[in-house]
Amino acid sequence: KNEVEQSPQNLTAQEGEFITINCSYSVGISALHWLQQHPGGGIVSLFMLSSGKKKHGRLIATINIQEKHSSLHITASHPRDSAVYICALTLRSHKAAGNKLTFGGGTRVLVKP
Amino acid sequence: NAGVTQTPKFQVLKTGQSMTLQCAQDMNHEYMSWYRQDPGMGLRLIHYSVGAGITDQGEVPNGYNVSRSTTEDFPLRLLSAAPSQTSVYFCASSWTSGNTIYFGEGSWLTVV
Lengths: 113, 112
Description:
A: mainly beta, 11 strands, 0% helix, globular, B: 0% helix
């Protein structure tokens, strides 16, 4: 069983729609990261969470430590939001091991105009 | 600040050749790491470092060497390139574990 599961794997939305991506994990973590990767592009860190909720522009990330679940929401989606969104964990057991990440499988988002 | 800088961005190598992927960061981050990204495999950790002079192996270290002589630089050496090393390579850095991670723009490597 994977330590981190993302859903859905693929998502298509119309411009302006509200998008939710989910990440569930089964291990103890010290942090959860949401990453964005555009096709053929680099990886950008959107959020790093250890508790609660963070907001940046149209993006909102939440985490429930007790339920071992995080969500990434995109409000008023736009075609430029089309990308792969990756949930990644810094495991509590890796705290002394650099920025080792355990990755989810990614969610490919396509926003149509 | 330039952030995390990787060079080269694209490289074609012949089997058996050696090369070094360069990674430099100007944020005084202690932690640096190298990942490779393959279709259908996601990102996998090659080597990482928690500070100058300290390196360790990740998930897929075979065929790669690293060193960390300064805080800023973390080069990845391919000793004798193989087609299986065709991949996209990302360097990443952060202050410590559990902090925001900054990625380089990636290096696209093809071994023929």
